[in-house]
Amino acid sequence: MRAREIMTSPAVTADPDTPVREAVALLIEHGFAGLPVVDADGRVVGLFTEYDALHGAREGNGVVTTVGQVMTKPVEVVSPETTVVAIGRRMLTDRLRCLPVVEDGVVVGVVSRRDLLRPLVRHDDAIAAHLRALLSDYAGHRGRWTVEVVNGAVTVSGTFTDQAERGVITALARTVPGVSEVDCRSAHTMAR
Fold it and tell me: Which residues does the UniProt record annotate as the domain BON (predicted)?
């Protein structure tokens, strides 16, 4: 797997003259760890990270600073063809949270730690985890049901107080993004 397959694209960027407050708003709004800082030609000249934002706020003493004054530079970049293994090694070794992806000198995307983790989790696993959390909250953190998910089809197995509770569990399951169908089975149905 390569950077081009997992990167966030197009990249949200800042320029050196962007006020720190605006760049922080972009970080928060998009949930990013960092923004590539690009010049007028789209070439990466730095990286504005959460650390840079905090450092800039501390050093600013109330004065609005620009991204160019606090950005990290020089910045490490990868190409769209860089392997995920190589990216992971660089992130771990250098304690990086994101790397700009550059092609022909121009930023085309960003790879974050979260992007590296996504391929490790199957879609069905994410659905199951989300539904298990909902059911745990509903049941007061007593493990009353098991959850299986195959291609978005959910099977909830266990003991249901009555038909109304079965309906509530079905409705809860349908609120989870990616669920295509729901089957609630009583514990004695499973034994067949």
Answer: 123-192
